């Protein structure tokens, strides 16, 4: 289940693709029924502090976890080509997660230097 921050990142990305500036009011209108107002506000504040690359990585992680694997079939009829495609999708997901971990580590390192 996606976190509040993942919801915010994804919806903000959708809004930006629509040419809109993601603000609290717009996000509340899109996510108000999915998130408690306090949770929405906290996640929005976290989102605003994230670097753009980290926001995008989180949004892509959520999008890819929701997207069904294209061309997959039932386990009894899965071909070798389908398995290769699934493996490639998993490798891409791992790369995205590694980017996210790296961005978070850099952020944590900057925080420790400032203390």
TrEMBL record:
The region called Disordered is annotated at 62-81
Protein's recorded name: KfrA N-terminal DNA-binding domain-containing protein
Write down the species. Answer: Alkalimonas collagenimarina
